[in-house]
């Protein structure tokens, strides 16, 4: 068993505010205590998400964890310690997952932007063997959100889907899952000019450059519209009669619905074969890997809203 120190390096904030004002790298943060159903993961890489910035500035203050807070949802790493009730995982296992079961309902105080993080066994899955730690860390929130949204829409083989914001973290996963896992008959997706080729490579049958045309003016309508860019009012105009519109943030226009992702290791296990076969790929922005010391720069890049795929912090440990 690895010798786990009592303290660790972690990014941590003690009040709400802009990341550059409140988020600090400290080297004396206490390594989290394990609950019976948890494992301690040595963090090799952590994925960043827009929610990290939103939580830090205090948008979800009504359902927050106590200060001081270590941000971060996505983790890929190695199990170094297991709780007494852990059934399947063991020390040395390489794992990935989203450590917060309910993304915005009192998430854990200690997230993944740290050298170690404690997480329930049920929220983790074995890391796909063909993926690096950085690639695995890019996946959990994005692929989990994409998968849960498609399930909630009861999306099935032979249906058509329009993905708004197809080049983002969630959108890039919706395209791939709809096409390669759910069996969509037709996938149409929107992005800006420079990202259209990415969408084609992911499996989109038609790409729409939103800087040049309005998706609601397309001659076709869709069984499902998956809105990743807060365009709900326009999204409902693009659905077929009796179709469904799902959105992941922003205002909701009837009959669309919004949901907040629930983390579930079993979903990642179901998707692992598609990742290991290469049918579904981890998408990291070409400029999207930042070392641990440059986490603030990574969060600032996420905040631009211009990321293709995901931004990942790697390496985190000094010795890997």
Task: Explain what you see.
The chain has 320 residues and is α/β, with parallel strands linked by helices. It is built from 9 helices and 15 strands. α7 links the parallel β11 and β12 (239-247). The chain has helices at residues 19-22, 50-57, 133-137, 140-152, 169-180, 196-202, 232-235, 265-276, 295-303; strands at 7-12, 24-30, 38-48, 74-82, 94-98, 116-120, 124-126, 160-164, 186-191, 206-209, 222-227, 239-247, 257-258, 284-290, 310-313.
Measure the end-to-end span.
17 Å
* Main beta sheet: 7 strands, mixed
| Average pLDDT level | 97
- Percent helix: 10-25%
Unreliable residue runs: none
Helix-strand makeup class = alpha/beta
**Count the helices. How many?**
9
Strand content: 25-35%
- Please tally the β strands and state the result: 15
Shape: globular
Order of helices and strands: EHEEHEEEEHHEHEHEEHEEHEHE
Radius of gyration over all CA atoms, rounded: 19 Å
Q: Quick summary of this structure?
A:
With 320 residues, the chain is α/β, with parallel strands linked by helices. 23% of the residues lie in helices and 28% in strands.
List strands and helices in order, with pairings.
Elements lengths: L6 E6 L6 H4 L1 E7 L7 E11 L1 H8 L16 E9 L11 E5 L17 E5 L3 E3 L6 H5 L2 H13 L7 E5 L4 H12 L5 E6 L4 H7 L3 E4 L12 E6 L4 H4 L3 E9 L9 E2 L6 H12 L7 E7 L4 H9 L6 E4 L7
Helix pairs in contact: 4-5
């Amino acid at each position: 068993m690895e010798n786990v120190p009592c303290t660790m390096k972690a990014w941590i904030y003690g009040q709400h505010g802009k990341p550059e004002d409140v988020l600090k790298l400290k080297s004396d943060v206490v390594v989290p205590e394990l609950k019976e159903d948890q494992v301690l993961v040595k963090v090799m890489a952590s994925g960043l998400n827009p929610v990290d910035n939103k939580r830090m500035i205090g948008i979800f203050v009504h359902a927050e964890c106590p200060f001081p807070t270590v941000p971060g949802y996505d983790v890929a790493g190695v199990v170094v310690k297991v709780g007494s009730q852990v059934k399947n995982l063991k020390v040395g296992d390489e794992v990935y997952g989203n450590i917060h079961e309910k993304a915005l309902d009192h998430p854990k105080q200690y997230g993944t932007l740290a050298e170690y993080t404690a997480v329930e066994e049920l929220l983790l899955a074995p890391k796909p063997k063909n993926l690096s730690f950085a690639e695995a860390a890019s996946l959990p929130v994005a692929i989990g959100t994409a998968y849960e949204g498609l399930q909630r829409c009861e999306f099935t083989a032979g249906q058509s889907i329009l993905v708004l914001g197809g080049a983002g973290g969630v959108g890039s996963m919706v395209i791939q899952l709809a096409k390669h896992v759910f069996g969509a008959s037709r996938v149409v997706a929107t992005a800006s000019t420079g990202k259209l080729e990415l969408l084609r490579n992911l499996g989109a049958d038609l790409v729409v450059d939103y800087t040049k045309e309005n998706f609601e003016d397309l001659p076709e309508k869709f069984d499902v519209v998956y809105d990743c860019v807060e365009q709900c009012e326009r999204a409902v105009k693009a659905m077929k009669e009796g179709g469904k519109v799902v959105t992941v943030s922003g205002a909701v226009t009837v009959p669309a619905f919004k949901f907040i992702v629930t983390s579930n290791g079993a979903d990642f296990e179901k998707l692992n074969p598609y990742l290991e076969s290469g049918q579904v790929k981890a998408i990291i922005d070409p400029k999207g890997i930042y070392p641990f010391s440059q986490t603030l720069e990574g969060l600032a890049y996420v905040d631009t809203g211009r990321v293709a795929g995901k931004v990942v912090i790697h390496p985190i440990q000094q010795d890997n």
